[in-house]
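Sanity check

After download, print the first record. It should look like this:
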Amino acid sequence: MQFGKIVLCLAALAALAAGGALAMDTEQAEKAYEVRHSLFSLVGWNVGPLAGMAKEEIPFDAERAEKHASRIAALVSMIPDAFAADTRGYDLPTEAKDVIWEEKGEFLELAAAIREKSAALETAAAGGDFGAFRTAFMEMGQACKDCHDRFRED
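Expected structure tokens:
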């Protein structure tokens, strides 16, 4: 799914959520799942090169690292909107646990931590210091893991 489509779908989901309880049909629930899946696919696509740099499998390139970190920071800011629609009642091929909507406050706190750590990663990458970049990358990775451990199926 293209980035523009993701933004459009997120906007539609946010508009639905603003109206109170979401009444969805199966097609809308599937779209919500597709948005979430696409969002995290794009995050992963941008994490890959950074992980390679952090593991020293590929050379550190501050400009490239900043580009990917900037994308991640923008994408993870969409996580709360992507999970606005409660899709628990639908048969979807999702790894999202139902507890996301049962403990929404904790989920949103973890999403905020990911946003904070991704912003720090963007700053560290822009600074060009490999050590600071790697530390910030590991901290962002830990924030992601904390959320996955609680709210994502293995």
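If your output differs, re-run the checksum step. Summary of this record's structure: The two ends are 24 Å apart (CA to CA).
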